[in-house]
Design a protein that fits this description.
This protein is of the alpha/beta class and about 230 residues long. It has one domain: Alpha/Beta hydrolase fold, catalytic domain (Rossmann fold, 3-Layer(aba) Sandwich). About 50% of the residues lie in helices and about 15% in strands. Strands 2-1-3-4-5-6 form a six-stranded parallel sheet, sandwiched between helices. The chain is globular, with a radius of gyration of 16 Å.
């Protein structure tokens, strides 16, 4: 039996390693997963460079939401180090002007004592209704571990990201695009856009999951990753 391959998983905004707890445990026969610090810089290029400094020489790369934005930049900076790519509940498009303005308002709220209110308002947008009782408190605990300063730094990083759609056709590693069917922030049509543009990419739709699919439907996400990792 071969030893587990090095892997780098990059969490989303306000998330930490707990986002991938089930995958770290249940894919341990295939992957030795290192969870990146998506708050290591204040721009996408700076953060990706900081992540690469601590990453294995080569690795399977997976990113959720903000982690996907950073995965595109990691590929731009060091494509030769990435052996496989998984894009989870994310998008290649840059923010619309309306979304950028919304993020700026969130930064202002977080910096003026409203972080708890902000987190509580985010939860229903991130988690499908049927999963909120179980998953909502898990997300909120992660968010409060990151804290308002971390949120502001991560959000400024997100605001710096470019449109990555021009890069999709040049991706040359086996790729998986995965999305929850109930994801309201990066809905399935954005996943389809990426999957159709990346040569040979697989598309996995996770029924009943919102934006935090690895927490909401951990077994289904792990199964999709396992099928992709073991494909020839």
């Amino acid at each position: 039996m071969s030893s587990p391959r090095p892997a780098l998983f990059v969490p989303g905004l306000l998330c930490d390693a707990e986002l991938f707890a089930a995958q770290i445990r249940d894919l341990s026969d295939l992957l030795e997963i290192q969870v990146a610090d998506q708050g290591a810089g204040e721009s996408v290029p700076e953060t990706a460079a900081a992540i690469l400094e601590k990453a294995p020489p080569s690795f399977v790369l997976a990113g959720l939401s903000m982690g996907g934005y950073l995965a595109f930049e990691i590929l731009r900076q060091a494509p030769e180090r990435v052996t496989r790519l998984a894009l989870l509940d994310t998008a290649a498009r840059a923010d619309s002007q309306e979304r950028r303005e919304d993020r700026e308002r969130q930064i202002e709220l977080a910096g003026s004592g409203g972080f708890g209110k902000l987190v509580a308002a985010m939860t229903p947008k991130l988690v499908a209704p049927e999963n909120r009782v179980e998953v909502g408190p898990v997300f909120e605990a992660m968010a409060h571990r990151v804290g308002p300063e971390g949120f502001i730094r991560q959000t400024r990083t997100i605001l710096s990201r470019p449109d990555s759609r021009p890069d999709l056709a040049g991706i040359r590693v086996p790729s998986l695009v995965l999305v929850g069917t109930e994801d309201a922030l990066t809905p399935p049509e954005l996943a389809q856009e990426m999957a159709f543009s990346i040569p040979g990419a697989r598309l996995a739709l996770i029924e009943g999951a919102g934006h935090l699919a690895p927490l909401e439907r951990p077994a289904a996400v792990t199964a999709a990753l396992r099928d992709w990792l073991t494909a020839s």
